[in-house]
UniProtKB/TrEMBL annotation:
This is DUF2877 domain-containing protein. It comes from the Bacteria. The lineage of its organism: Bacteria, Bacillati, Actinomycetota, Actinomycetes, Jiangellales.
Length: 287
């Protein structure tokens, strides 16, 4: 799916009337959310609020779209609107309005988008080389045995091309593990990103299997909202860089891998595991 067209202009920052203590911040938004942020105003709801991230699900067509307000030090999610510092004082359940170049949350936060950053899908130059470099490596760093076993079933389902097995494997991973993005979901995201770069048909089948498992009912809203971006090949930059280096004749694979593994408590390891099982299963079908 091509990236949405970035609006040529958005509303400039303006003072918030009334209480001067209310937060008015500039923001730089991902092009992956340009159609939502730059389009007509839509309603949404805060589904997670941490020290570094505020996640909003926006009502947009048949399925809600995830958008995240993050500070500059946070992991750069593909749906991030980055502000100079993290917004504070927000809580799940608060009302949001997104559109016309703005993100308004409750009565206390207004982010005006004046800049955009490019969210680029994963690309793997030499898929065979990437597969060779990951073959036989220890891909279980910090991960529970149940996650590793479920990832193995996903790899077999991708290799066999059986839709029923793929549905079972996706359902077995969805929501598996603790945290804002359970490790099972991260495995699915890593596999989706690789499949989108290597075998679009397999990517579409896996995305359909994940969607049929109803992620919003099975896992956290943040994790469920990130999976559609992964189906488009979009992910944190550490995974995008790791995959690019894996398939390139030059580049420090070990350094890229260390940066990926440093993402979250288990997210980086689970993303890598999903990427590796998809590479092992789909490299022969590389376009």
């Amino acid at each position: 799916m091509p990236a949405p067209t970035v609006p040529s202009a958005v509303r400039a920052a303006r003072p918030w009337p009334g209480d001067a203590s209310r937060q008015v911040l500039p923001g730089a938004a991902s092009t992956a959310v340009a159609a939502v942020v730059g389009g007509p105003r839509l309603t949404g709801e805060v589904v997670a609020a941490t020290r570094t991230l505020t996640a909003v699900l926006v009502d947009h067509g048949a399925e809600p779209v995830l958008l995240c307000l993050t500070g500059p030090a946070a992991v750069r999610l593909p749906c991030a609107v980055v502000t100079p510092w993290p917004v504070s004082g927000l809580r799940p359940g608060q009302h949001a309005v997104v559109g016309d170049g703005e993100v308004q949350v409750g009565d206390g936060v207004l982010v005006t988008v004046g800049r955009w950053w490019q969210a680029r899908p994963a690309a793997i130059g030499d898929v065979t080389l990437a597969r060779q470099r990951t073959a036989g490596k220890d891909d279980r760093t910090g991960l529970d045995g149940a996650i590793v076993a479920a990832a193995g079933r996903l790899g077999l389902a991708l290799l066999c091309g059986d839709d029923d097995e793929l549905a079972d494997a996706a359902g077995g991973l969805l929501g598996l593990g603790p945290g804002l993005t359970p490790a099972g979901d991260d495995v699915l995201a890593g596999a989706l990103v690789v499949a989108s770069a290597v075998d679009p048909r397999a990517a579409a089948r896996l995305a359909s299997a994940v969607e049929a498992a109803e992620p919003l009912r099975r896992t956290t809203a943040v994790s469920a909202g990130l999976l559609p971006y992964a189906a488009r090949g979009l992910a944190v930059p550490q995974l995008i860089v790791y995959l690019a280096v894996l398939g390139a004749a030059r580049g420090d694979v070990d350094a890229a891998e260390r940066r990926l593994l440093a993402v979250g408590h288990t997210s980086g390891a689970a993303l890598r595991l999903g990427a590796q099982v998809a590479l092992a299963a789909l490299a022969g079908a590389a376009r």
